[in-house]
Amino acid sequence: MHTNVVDTMLYEKYEPVIGLEIHCQLGTESKLFSPDSASGHDAPPNTRVDPVSLGHPGTLPVLNRRALEHALKLGLASHCRIADRAEFARKHYFYPDLPKGYQITQHRAPLCYDGYLDVTLPAGDSRDDGAPRTRRVGLARVQLEEDAGKMTHAGGETRVDYNRCGVPLCAALRRQRVSAAARGTRAGREDGAEEPELVSPRRASTRPRDRPSDSAK
Which of 165, 120, 119, 175 is closest to 142 using CA atoms? Predict the structure, then answer.
């Protein structure tokens, strides 16, 4: 089957629903659930670890109050609603940089939800009167979670550094789809934010059946 025919069929049947998940590390001295140092960037590998972050049997997590306060401030700054009840849960997956075999996160009951940020667009998107144009970015949730370790691949070998395991993160998830990659990236790069993680499921298309003429060649 010709490539253009396949593309046309997929276009008519599906449309991408694109969201961003933006992570930022919280400025705390200790990790999210253990007293070990959260400043492990320049430390020798596997020297900022403890039984809690490594998931040793019999250990129990204790929430870092300062991390909770930072997450609440971020939620309020982004016009979120604060949940009456938030929960942590284990998100199980198996990967070499996750020694516990699960990540503690709030993917089911987040601390903050239903917020937004107003993002200023570049000069080319200015209004007719020259004033900067803004776009409102909806946030589905702002949640607390812990980071995983770091893997380095070199010389045919893979080495794992667990210093980052348990470091507190705040994850902000966009509610609306992104219509332009530049706008989505700009919305994700706030102070201290890491590279946005693209979340792109697909849904049945709701667009009209007529496809742009240039794709019918």
Answer: 175
The closest alpha carbon to 148, from 4, 49, 43, belongs to 49
- Structural domain containing residue 100: 19-200
Cβ atoms of residues 178 and 60 within 8 Å? no
Tell me if 112 is assigned to some domain: yes
Encoded amino acid at 114, one letter: D
Q: How confident is the model at residue 60 (pLDDT cuts 50, 70, 90)?
A: very high
Helix (H, G, I), strand (E, B) or coil at 106: coil
Question: Dihedrals φ, ψ of 180, to 5°?
Answer: -145, 135
110 pLDDT more than 50: yes
- At residue 141 the predicted structure's pLDDT band, cuts being 50, 70 and 90, is very high
Instruction: Give the number of residues written for the chain.
Output: 217
Q: Are 70 and 170 in contact (CB under 8 A)?
A: yes
Compute the distance between CA of residue 127 and CA of residue 19 in angstroms, rounded to an integer. 26
What are the structure tokens assigned to 96, written together? 């070499």
Q: Is residue 215 part of a domain?
A: no
Q: Is 108 exposed, middle or buried (0-12, 13-18, 19+ CB in 10 A)?
A: exposed
Q: What is the pLDDT of residue 178?
A: 45
The torsion defined by the Cα of 116, 24, 75 and 182, in degrees rounded to 10, comes to -10
Q: Residue 111 falls within a domain, yes or no?
A: yes
